[in-house]
Design goal:
Length: 193
């Protein structure tokens, strides 16, 4: 893939949105239902912030807060950093690195049309291997390697350290097993392709 391609050719058009007045419980259920790790928060139908699984796990759980008592404005990241649909992927990578973020909502004339993530860039770009290798070797290695977190595609467990193997996000245990069927109770829901 040419890193000068516009982000619209790499982005996912599937993006969850929620009004700033929605409940955290509602958006968490939507994230699970749609298998997404983030929700773009809108106000008057305009994107104003973003909430990720990481925001929920780091801002709610450690403080033992009841999710139904937390407003979205308390935990969303704002102001929202966005990117125009015609911006080159190389600029998106640079913007992610500069701002230490992994997701960029994509706009067309101020209208949200999708989202591009560091995972999208990795998953679709075999030709970008050298560029990504340089990014991973940079001082911000944690953005693409050690801080890639989410749900393991094999065992379904949440992990703070996922690795992409053959296009799947794997936790350390599943990655180390080399795609073998797990034997412990923490990974009994995994499957073999």
């Amino acid at each position: 893939m040419d890193i000068d391609k516009p982000v619209r050719e790499v982005m996912s058009p599937r993006v969850i949105t929620a009004d700033v007045n929605d409940s955290l419980i509602h958006i968490a259920k939507e994230m699970i239902r749609c298998d997404r790790s983030s929700v773009v928060i809108t106000e008057n139908k305009k994107p104003v912030g973003i909430i990720t699984e990481r925001d929920i796990s780091r801002k709610i759980i450690p403080n033992d807060r009841k999710p139904s008592t937390v407003s979205l404005t308390e935990i969303m990241t704002s102001p929202l950093i966005t990117i125009d649909q015609n911006t080159p992927v190389s600029d998106a990578i640079q913007l992610m690195l500069e701002n230490k973020i992994r997701r960029l909502p994509v706009l067309r004339n101020a209208t949200l049309i999708g989202i591009i993530t560091s995972y999208d860039i990795i998953a679709v770009s075999s030709e970008m291997t050298n560029t990504l290798r340089k990014l991973m070797e940079s001082e911000d290695e944690s953005l693409l390697v050690s801080e890639f977190e989410g749900i393991c595609d094999l065992c379904g467990q949440y992990s703070y350290n996922l690795a992409v193997v053959d296009g799947r996000s794997l936790c350390e245990e599943c990655k180390d097993r080399g795609w073998k069927e797990p034997t412990d109770s923490n990974h009994e829901s995994a499957y073999i392709e």
